[in-house]
Request: fold
Amino acid sequence: MTTFMLKPADVVKKWLIIDAADVVLGRLASEVAKLLRGKHKASYTPHVDCGDNVIIINAERIRLTGKKRENKIYYKHTGYVGGIKETTPRKILEGRFPERVVEKAIERMLPKESALARQQFSNLRVYKGNDHPHEGQSPEVLDIAGRNPKNCRSIA
Reply:
């Protein structure tokens, strides 16, 4: 008996659309990372990009549980001495690019520092509003909020 290894030419990719309105960020990110890697498929092969293309809409309406919206701190370093910068999810979500919170949460759940992870992450499209330019791919709607009551939080 041999182990089945999928070849890149045999990969069948689907297009999925997810509405992120009132969905908890971490739960959404873990599901999307699994879809991007292809771990939900029976033909999953670790060294091949066999995941699906994922479109996320309404990224500005994502929910964070507890007081993470104000108290969680994201750090980045400029590369210069004393160049550490910090920001909160609230500042990012109220800013010009609210989809970055969702993108970074998903990116940090993929494998680090590999060409395959970069290729898998390029299959993600995140939009802050309800509109997206991918109608031609006829994406299937995937309801993350309906899978588990904990996935969806209303405004508190």
Remarks:
- The mean pLDDT is 93.
- The two ends are 55 Å apart (CA to CA).
- Helices lie at 25-37, 68-71, 89-94, 99-107, 115-121.
